[in-house]
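Journal club prep — side note

Before the paper discussion, L.F. wants everyone to see what a predicted structure for a comparable chain looks like in token form. Sequence:
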Amino acid sequence: MRVFGNLGRVVLWTGAAALAITTGCGDEDAGGEPAAEAPSGDPRFQLDKLDGRWILYDQRANQKFRFEWHREGDKTELWYTNGGFTKRRMAGELRASDWRFTEVLSAADEDKWKAGNRSRARLFVVPRPEAGALRVTEVAVEMKGGKESEKAKGKFKEFVPFPDGQPFTFRPCDGPLFLGDAARSAAAADKQVAEEGGPFPGHALGEAIPVGVHTDAAADGDAACTFDMDLYFDDRPAEGKDGAKMTAVAAGEVTDGRRAWVVPAWYAPYSGNHHFQMYRYRTCGGERELVGVQCIEAVLE
């Protein structure tokens, strides 16, 4: 296990390429014991003060498993990515010796869970300051005969603080994105939802993929505000063909009460499963405020 005390090198795997980054973690010794202990009383490992971003460490850092604490008033959530692009909201409960987080489901999925037709994720988080890590146990929770039943998903995992300066996204999505004709046209998107139940999760790969969504302009905010978006591809800042970051991209016009958040030429010439993410912002009186996050995971081929 790599722990706090020495400067170490962690490798984040991003597809076929590896990104080496420096963190505040040291190497394990030959016997597998910690090379150094986390500072005594470090607030990062005090149960009631746990916060920030964390990443799975199992021989190497793996950004496909990561989470961020999110606190609002007396509520605590984890925004949890567990092996792919899907980000789950996990509602937290502080207990005597751990945190228990339970997946927040949509109303439709909650009904399915209560009927025994799906499971929900649950995490138990325990700080291990002596190892500079959090020990996380995941279980699948099913409803059987009106009672919860927990089934362990493998052994516990250990998470270490996420390295500074790595611009991965953590926030769960608020709604869908569309590709192709459904991105360009609100009517085409509505038709796709009516016929398919949601956005079609596929498109030909290319250097100019239309990606977008049409939202209720009144719900977005005062028409006197300005609206723009930051774009992410596979959970990292999206880049154009020229390598420029796709940030503060202006939203389109309002037509029939719908605002067009459309990127007519998203550069994505890569085959396989990919994730498009759009952070929508409004600026009123100089303050830029997040309106919502739209996403789609799609196969490009």
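L.F.'s comment for the group: The longest helix spans residues 186-196. Keep this in mind when we get to the figures.
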